[in-house]
Structures are given as C-alpha cells and as structure tokens.
Amino acid sequence: MISKNASSFDAAVANYDTDFTFSEIGKKQRGRVYHWLEKINFFSSSKKVFEINCGTGYDAEQFLSRGHEVIATDVSSEMINYAIDKRNEALTFYTLDFLQLKKDENFEKSEVLFSNFGGLNCLNPHDLNNFFKDVATVQKQEDFFIGVFMAKHCLMEDIYHFLTLKWQKINRRNTSEALKVNVNKNVVNTYYYSPSELIQAMGENYKVQLKKPIAFFLPPSYLEPFFKKNLWLLKGLNYLERIFGGMSFLASYSDHYIIVAKKI
To answer: Pairing mode, if any, of strands 179-183 and 186-190?
Structure first.
C-alpha cells in the first residue's frame, strides 16, 4: 500500500508546489498551521525536528529559516530528489517509509516528529495504530508529535457537493475504507480519521496539548480553480477562519485538523 502511493506521489512531484503549496487555498491552509505552531511557541527556541512525508521540502526550509535543525524524509524518491535540488543545502533529505521510522537513528536523536497535510492518512487503521506504537518506543518523555490530518467529516466539502448536486458524495469521507483520492491525476489510497479516532490510535503514551481545525471555513484544495476566479469569496472565508477557527470542536468538521501531543 505504501509503495503504491509512493509511485503516485513520484508522478505528482512536477506540479505539486503549483497545485498545492503555492495555490491560494494551500497558502491559506498552511498559514493556519503556522498560526497554531506560533501559539504553542514552536519557533521560540531551536528544536531538532524530524519530518515525515515532507513532500517537496517547503516546511523543512521554513523551519530551518526559523532556527530549527531539520531532517526531512518522504517515501517518494522523486519528492526527495526535488527537495535536494530546490531547497536549502543545509537541510538533510532522504527517502524513508515512515513504517520503518523506529529503525532510523536520526529520529532517535530528534525532539519533534512533524507530519503535515495528511501524509499519515495513507495508513489504514491497523498500520496507524502500529505506527504510533513504534513511535512511542523511540520518542523520549517530553518529545512532541505534531500532525495535520484530513478529517472524517468536512462541512465545506459537503456544502460544495450539495450545491453542485453531487449528493451521492455528501459525507463521502465517513467510511473506514480507503478512498481513491486524485493527486495530480494519480490515485492515492486515503483513510480519513476523526480527531477522537486519531487520539485513540495514539494511545496512552501521549497527552494532547492542542487540537484545532485547519480549514473549517476554508475549502479543500481541489476547489482551487473556482476560488482562484473568486478570490473575494476565499478572502471572506479566510477572515471567518481567523475569527472563528479557534474553536476546538470544529476540528471534527474541517478539511484538516492539527494535533499537538507530548510523550508522557
């Protein structure tokens, strides 16, 4: 399953930054992630960050510029090749299947495990449980896990499907089975988790410090073509996100949500 998704992301690398990282929706969603990182004082002092599913390395470069030591990995060799070529030479990138994370010496030395924008949604429930068990055997007390996940319910997506008469797709995420998600015309098997399911998978080894919505009002990134033509509407939704997006219960109904947890 992981290797199949890896090949899909290999094929998506050429347009990934254009389609998401630097898209209008992508920039605003990432802005919300960084907003919550600021709230937990993530950038207040240098930390040893180990990133999984780093994609093209954008976050790794941002973290480096803000004083962190960063090692970034991805299962896609093409994503890693792109990151090595395009990002700051001071960064370390290499290919790693995150199900093999517990064997990595660099991870053992880190203080923060970071995963942005749904990389761990590639794992089925069994593998997700095993992932957190493995991580817990390596992380030290007071180490952090910070993850951004795709939620099991997305109100904005359901509204879009209702208004476009795609009623059979309403509540499509609410399943324990994998959905085949289009990533730049390549299929990625994706599992959706509610915050409560994710916290349960983490088990008793972690204490949640923060749970917040990422894009309750902001739309999913695949709606970029429409909102790029209607930036006034996207600006208004972003305003609502900034005003009301701090309510933790909205995490269950957002496109993404962020979980910050400490190893205990």
So the answer is: antiparallel
Q: Can you give the pLDDT at residue 77?
A: 94
* Surface-to-core class of residue 67, CB atoms within 10 Å of its CB (0-12 exposed, 13-18 middle, 19+ buried): exposed
Q: Which of 7-11, 90-94, 194-198, 199-203 has the lowest mean pLDDT?
A: 7-11
Q: Which two tokens stand for residue 170?
A: 């309403």
Segment 169-208, tens digit of pLDDT: 999 999 999 998 877 667 789 999 999 999 999 999 999 9
How many residues does this entry show for the chain? 264
Between 13 and 10, residue with greater pLDDT: 13
- Close Cβ partners of 75 (under 8 Å, ≥ 6 residues apart): 2, 3, 5, 6, 9, 53, 95, 96, 97, 98
Residue with structure tokens 């970034």?
A: 72
Residue type (1 letter), 41: N
Percentages helix, strand, coil for the chain (3-state, rounded to 5) are: 50, 20, 30
Only one residue has tokens 């933790």, namely 248
Give yes or no for a contact between 73 and 49, defined as CB atoms under 8 angstroms apart: no
Q: Is residue 9 pLDDT above 80, yes or no?
A: no
Task: Provide the pairing of β-strand 48-52 with 69-74.
Answer: parallel
